[in-house]
Amino acid sequence: MSETPPASPGQQDAPYAPTARTVPTRARERASYDRELVHSVLDEGYVCHLGFVRDGAPVVLPTLYARVGERLYIHGSTGSRPLRTAGATDPGMAVCLTITHVDGLVLARSAFHHSINYRSVVVHGTARRVTGADERRTALDAIVEQAVPGRSQDSRPADAKELAATAVVRLDLDEVSAKVRTGGPSDEPEDLALPYWSGVVPLSRGYGAPVPSDDLDPGIALPGYLARL
What we know:
Blueprint: E1 31-32, H1 35-44, E2 47-54, E3 57-68, E4 71-77, H2 81-85, E5 93-107, E6 115-129, H3 133-147, H4 160-164, E7 166-172, E8 175-181, E9 199-202, H5 224-227
Antiparallel strand pairs: 1-8, 2-3, 2-5, 3-4, 4-7, 5-6, 5-9, 6-7, 6-8
């Protein structure tokens, strides 16, 4: 098993180091390299967008992921050629991974200044195929837990056939940045007297009541981790 790289002294509190690829060209004041902020954005999501180049053309693949320490694990099918071939040969596959949460719709008096409030993370690095059985199981459990904490212990683990059909790649958190927009619209002073509503429509993630499957044994109660959602 390839262990998650140990944290160096002070690493848990130290910010990520900016690089040429993680410094934005626009709105640099919104960029952050704060490790706690980056982790919070990563830990709140379910789906990432994984970008890479295939046959000379850019490709973006939406897929499940999970963070374990300073590493991301990305899930896919072995039928996906990029995930199947990542790390098959050294030095792996160069990728760019993004996660975004939309927190509000920003409505300005002018169409030009309409925007969104958001939190996002961009990770650059090299994706490598996970082949060790123990690490693969750790990664897959983490991906299930990322969606619903407590679920990995309340479901049947993948069997050998299912594991063979599942590709997992890892991406270390080395080149990382967060970007955040908060607050209201940035109206021009000359537009403040215009008769148009201006402000923010907040957005938040919510959970509906769990719906049992039609063939669920009525004697099986709703697990506490789902009731807590």
